[in-house]
């Protein structure tokens, strides 16, 4: 398997972490989005959306979109709950991550860390929605150590990717103690620093 990804991208890292956690063999192909390497004709032939991550599976079939990739890689593993309701709750968090978390927390991080904006220059609505997303995580972790019960699953992998670096976009996790503790649990379970 080949994974095309940019090491600065949480969406790419969650694919790497899932493959590593599952002991899957792969070749990592660094694809620098800041240098438009996902916009070359060769890459666009692989993924017409021009986004990383993208993978080419062992049988040669390509697959894009981080959460679709990690779901495919983890099929049949302990990263996907066997209970149908818990699996649906995992997917609920994963869909929410791409719609209500990543567009705010990750975008704020990109503007501050890579585009050179000061936190004070960020659009107030972006900051407000990022804080709301982190509060939603805080509330969601009130009843269990992971997002869906007692064990690590793909929802945790998906959401930890940008949450763990939220401070780079001006969001201090100290304001969300359950989230801060959860990040440490997930990092330990995935063996990431």
Please tell me about this protein's structure:
Helices cover 52% and strands 7% of the residues. Helix 4 packs antiparallel against helix 5 (124-140) and helix 6 packs across helix 7. It has a 4-stranded mixed β-sheet, with helices on one face. The radius of gyration is 16 Å and the shape is globular. The mean pLDDT is 97. The protein folds into 2 domains: 2-74, Glutaredoxin (3-Layer(aba) Sandwich), CATH 3.40.30; 84-190, Glutathione S-transferase Yfyf (Class Pi), Chain A, domain 2. The chain is α+β, with helices and mostly antiparallel strands and 193 residues long. The relative contact order is 0.14. Strand 3 and strand 4 form a beta hairpin. It has 7 helices and 4 strands.
């Amino acid at each position: 398997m080949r994974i095309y990804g940019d090491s600065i991208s949480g969406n790419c890292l969650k694919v790497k972490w899932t493959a590593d956690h599952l002991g899957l063999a792969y070749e990592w192909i660094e694809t620098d989005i800041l240098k438009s390497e996902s916009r070359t004709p060769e890459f666009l032939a692989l993924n017409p959306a021009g986004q990383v991550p993208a993978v080419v599976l062992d049988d040669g079939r390509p697959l894009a979109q981080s959460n679709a990739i990690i779901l495919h890689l983890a099929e049949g593993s302990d990263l996907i709950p066997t209970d149908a309701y818990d699996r649906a709750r995992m997917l609920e968090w994963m869909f929410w991550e791409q719609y209500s978390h990543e567009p705010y927390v990750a975008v704020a991080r990109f503007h501050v860390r890579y585009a050179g904006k000061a936190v004070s220059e960020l659009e107030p609505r972006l900051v407000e929605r990022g804080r709301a997303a982190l509060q939603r995580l805080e509330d969601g972790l009130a009843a269990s150590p992971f997002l869906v019960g007692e064990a690590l699953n793909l929802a945790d992998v998906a959401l930890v990717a940008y949450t763990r670096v939220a401070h780079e976009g001006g969001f201090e996790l100290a304001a969300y103690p359950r989230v801060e503790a959860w990040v440490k649990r997930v990092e330990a379970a995935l063996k990431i620093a």
